[in-house]
Amino acid sequence: MLENINQTKQEFTNELQNTHDLQQLEQLRIKFLARSGRIGGLFEGMKTAAPADRPMLGKALNELRQYAQLHYDAKKADLEQAQKPKEIPFDLTLPGRMKNVGTKHPVIQVMEEIKRIFISMGFSVENGPEIESDYYNFEALNFAPDHPARDMQDTIFIADKILLRTHTSPVQIRVMEKQKPPVRAIMPGWSYRNEAVSARSLVAFHQVEGLYVDKGVTFSELKGTLVAFAKQFYGSSIKYRFRPSYFPFTEPSAEMDITCYLCGGKGCRICKYSGWLEVLGSGMVHPHVFKAVGYDPENYTGYAFGMGIERTALLRYGIDDIRILYENDVRFLKQF
Amino acid sequence: MKVSQNWLKKYIDFNLTPEQFTEKLSMLGLEVEAFEDLAKKFDKFVVGEVIERAKHPNADRLSVCKVRTGKNVEQIVCGAPNVAAGQKVAVALIGAVVPYNQHARDGKPFTIEHVKIRGVESSGMICSEIELGIGKDASGILVLDTPAKAGTPLAKYLGQNDVIYEIGITPNRPDCLSHIGTAREIGVLVNKKIRLPKIVLKEIKTSASKFAGIEILDKDKCPRYSARIIRNIKIGPSPKWLQDVLTAVGVRPINNIVDVTNYVLMETGHPLHAFDYDKLAGHKVVIKTAGEGDKFVTLDGKERTLTSDTLMVCDGERPVAIAGVMGGANTEISDATVNVLLESAYFKPQNIRRTSKYLGLSTEASYRFERGADIDITVTAADRAAQMIQELAGGEILKGVLDAYPKKRKPVTVKAHAERINSVIGVSLSKAQIISLLKKIDLLSRSISKNEILVTVPAFRNDIMEEIDIIEEVARIYGYNNIETKTHAAIDFSSNVRNDEFQNGIREFLIGSGFNEILTIGLQDEATMSLAGKKPVMAVNPVSAEMAALRTSLVTSALKVVKHNQNHGVKDLRLFEIGNIHLLTSEKALNSLESYKEEERLLLVISGNRQPACYGNISQPVDVLDIKGEVSVLLSKFCLDNYSFIYYDTHEILSEECVGIEINGTYAGFFGKIKKQIADKLDIDEAVFVCEINIETLRGGWVRDRKFSPLPKFPIVTRDLAFTVDVTLPQRNVEDVIREAGKPLCMNVVLFDTYTGEQTGKDKKSVAYDLEFQSPDHTLTEEEVDSVLKKIIEAVNERCKGVLRG
User: What ipTM goes with this model?
Assistant: First the structure.
């Protein structure tokens, strides 16, 4: 009997190995596992076995049945799997569903960074009108009537003594008129000049003006603040210099140059082979300006500075023609 | 202003490379914008002596020359017919770059190499004028003056061993508009005083005052007028050295008299003018203003119209010069001139500037007078010119200077406090240090009290009038870069740090929504601007007609951007701009700022396809519901429900598809589709949808501080309802009725379908809504919802004639 069981197992194993499709497998199942099959027959045969052998035989038979069922199930699963039509894997290289991508104008990006740095230093942001009077744009800023300093800023006029502001400096006057010292503000915005449009100049451009008035503000502090700004904005390793200059509304006046970061100061086309880039104009607020707004120049000192944003953006992004900034070609805008 | 290094060295000794000169002078406030080293052009060019000339064995027209070029003698093959032994010639040695190739059509420069010409070795070239780039003669070689020594660098021989600097002089420093003025600043750098030219005059006994009189009628506009008379001069070209130095600094040589006046101008900065004395009627000079509308022909041959503000130099009968600007054709120096009256005056800067501006005529003279000449120097300048004229043109200088100087300039003194100087600059200089710094630039000062000094300001420094000007000079001479870099600003907690976070918020939101930010210039042509319907603010002196009008709306400039992009094949556009527009509020008071209103606006533009072209995106053109959606999410985001739409049917810029926006009941802007007529005018084919909103009004509706409302605890019950209504009835009416009737349990109404077709008939449409019901305090029962639905159905039926669909 036991021999019979082992032989059945051997046969089942051999036949299972030679089974290659579900039909054959079904025949195998009928042959071995069905109620009337070989294994069922063996259970039937148990009845005739000696009672003493039955537990042992029963155990062997149960093991055989489990063995057969297990291998049958596994084979069935394999064959079913093999028979199934093959699933096409998803092509993950298909492009994702794209969305429209928004961008901030490069000039605004530069402007926002400049603002962020000065706001972090405690400057507030103030605004003033673009259509200005001669008084705010020139006179209060110590540009005397019929003074050649006015030639530094070619002006677009709207009417007699009404003009498009040539710089953001008139906002200084407006801020000081409405506020007592201390004043610490930056004033960004559009300015206009009556200049022919070229790769280097536009009729309209952005400036950021800065002003700090308090007791004991010195030129030395002007330098400190602007150097701190330049190091944040242009990088901590830049070299700088302050060069005497002239603006009617500041005295002493200074231009700030930094080492040209395109050539590292060796001299290139961008810095006109000087190694230096002029980045901003600055100076100590002229006492005449304080008098115009009713501040006492004996009591207060202050500094002011201003810089052009477009020029800064050109340098930062390596753009060589300023006009492309305001063509607003989407292919250009999407680069930023 | 151009200055010559050699010329500067007449007044100050210095030994600086062009780079050092540029750096140091710039750091002193005289910005050196460029320099040209003239000698570089003549590197490897020398004076040569032709020792021997022989015929070329293989070519009739060529000569073989032995040329001494210093220690060496070179063999040079030369094709010029005029070469001869004993000549001094200009030789380009091996490696020299000849500026002009007279045998090549393009004339491109070429480099001299060692060559064999028809079998004969040649190590250099004897040059013609045109080849050297110093003249036009190409007929033969340039023969130099015989005393020239062989081996001398050609640059030196030609007087071209110079460096020319271009210096940007700021308007406050007219004293630096000359070689002497620039030399004075160089003196600060090298710690030396300048040498002024020695003037020795050989006057004749006859007194000038017998030959001419000066009368100033407008003493305000002409505080001083000096003149000299030189007789029996001989007009002719200036010597080469004078022509060369003038040419080097950009002044065209004319004749010996005019050239001398220009030389003295460039030397001292003081403008002079020479009249033909014999043409001065009555032999007198009268300075007075012109009559309004008078005509006058200046020496450039142009007729000018004058005003009663124009100061004129006149003779006994008529005007002979526009004072300080340009002389007249009637008394111009000519080849026939024998006697000269030399003017050296001082005119009031403001008046000269007005005249120069009014006439649109800026000259070397007006440029200096309007910035302020040196009133103390008129006689010196006249003497200097008289001396040079005598040297170069012969003649007799009449005795004495005619000098009308009705009100002598008082010496200017300025008090300065050491403490104040230190506190503005942020340094701690002693009084003695300050005095010695100022002395370097001829500002002599003395201590007048413990803390104060008194500075005497020379007339040439007309920019120094008060203490702050002294402070600037101290800072400048001390050196800006020697001033410590400090920051000790106290943080000021009291001031309210404002910023424009609202605009930034809008920007970030729109960028997140896939919009590209554009920036356009607020000036446009009037025709395009007037498309927006309002009369724009106009510039009276526009740069060009294209930029003459200030925009009244952001739309038109953005449409040009749309056009630009469409031209470049980019048609799917989502653009936004935040910018200012200007409106004219009163056409009467154009001189008042109150007549102009500035408004900040936000503009959205969409055109082309809704989604970017890509696999899986259906390409569908945008329509008015796209712009409406963009506007709605923007407004809901910032203003929650503080806004509403008004449906128009006409608009200046928009087609019938146009909607107004109100925020908190205030008109804020509009959106819709651009009118076809306007799109056509700008040549735009695609439909363009825009929205323009006033930023201030938008900010007014901004709900900046948000309050938490508890989330609902009980479930939502949803139902659908569809009604058949008249096809012309706006769905919004139905929706409003549902909302009203559904209160308070109906929390949300969403339109999900509209349909017109067979089932409705063409006069009717079906509108279908999703309704959400919710109670804050309990779970709704079927009965509760049903009773609300019943109310809604009745209301729609009654107020919209809407029939519930089955």
Answer: 0.82
